[in-house]
């Protein structure tokens, strides 16, 4: 079973990147830019997404290992490669998977300055640090690590599936400043989190002590919170397909709720130069129903069992040393399942960028036209990141955005982040009358051989977008 | 320029869908094994002359023994995944007498699976006598440990009487190698 999990884990590296989508950020003729920055400048008056197809987003990655690192076909010494990877990877390396599907997306202009947008999307987000110490203990044991502390804090992960209902307003304050906000109602489908764990396991030599070693579990405090899992677990004989069906049935009526906010702005410093920034998912999930918490805590140490050589008659039983040891162990290291409500922060995302435009478009000479000329070449840089249990993840993206015509646009991007120093991205968006289709992929070098890629991400969608003449 | 739209889209989609995994063999996943080596303390004791004297009569008891059940030897991970064991036994004798030690591993039915027996020489001129022994079980022999569930420790002091004085320390550990 663990082998399948490992394969799945490694396989997930064929898709990657964090939740941020720099290829869609600041794309003023895509409604999805409003999900990145509700205060973005936009260039349309109405949009209606194709249900379930207006945005399909997949991203995943791993900062410390690729499929090639383990499954290289150069030789058959796969176990040595696993050991090498475990030695090189750190407890701050991580694996992440993020997926979003827009179920519904629509928006329209409100008055002269506002644009209202609303919709529903489903999101899956998994983020797990590499549990280095527990993994080394499991793979190699303690024999070569006498005296070393194995930290339970290395086990840190979050996972959630939820549906997000949102409504936002984009407001053009004046010719320079645009601001926006988006209110989000989260409907939780499933959540698991285990962060802030504590405790150490170690084996130390005890010269002069009662035995060779002392094995210690010190101040163990591990907690795994779950919501939406207990009811699945209690369904005896439920197949994977049935479990997936059950989860999907909760998509629109999840049991746990949360509230969140996106905020953003765009400021045109000059006609050509603008700065902007946004935060997404400043919010909390309140897990109150279908909750189970698994707690493991305590301290324990032992040097083995000590026989006492009691004077026993032939009919007397030996002292039950093992039972006594187990009772002491159970008293000292306890596990407890509770049903306490808990609250989680949503992973806060943030973006900040500046953009410089050159090459004004030439508009037809028509006094009825209210549009201002656009810049056909846009150069920008985005700093983006997300809050995670052990600190923020981050990336820097530089891009060239080219509006070939009013109906065809592409963006070429180069990014540096924790996955790779050479991330090339490409986005193309095209309109056929009012029908828009876009496709964006990051780390396209990695697509040539996914086995060697630390990350990749993909966004695609189709929708109807209406613009003023 | 609109004529470029479809070729660009097709080219881009084609690139994405032509992506593949190269130079890897996922079939190797079947060969991945967990092979932890665990160092684990087993039994220890410190005996003095009082342990060889009857607590009521004060008579010298040259042979003493005790039995310790090690229930973990019956667990699945031992029965299915234990491949190698190196058991280390160390005696430090301060008594001015030889002591015979016999460590017997027994099955549930009391049948002897294997034993480690040796004589611990007497301390000479106040210098502690040390016997440090390693018993390795691997290959077919590992079955003997898998079948074991209890250890019987027996000590026999040779040539002493009730006036004996000294101390006997015992340390033991196991190096257990698993393959999962």
TrEMBL record, chain A:
Classification via InterPro entries: DUF5723
Key words of the record: Signal
Signal peptide: 1-18
Highest rank taxon of the organism: Bacteria
Sequence ranges assigned to domain DUF5723 in this UniProt record: 38-441
Protein name: DUF5723 family protein
Natural source organism: Christiangramia lutea
Native organism taxonomy: Bacteria, Pseudomonadati, Bacteroidota, Flavobacteriia, Flavobacteriales
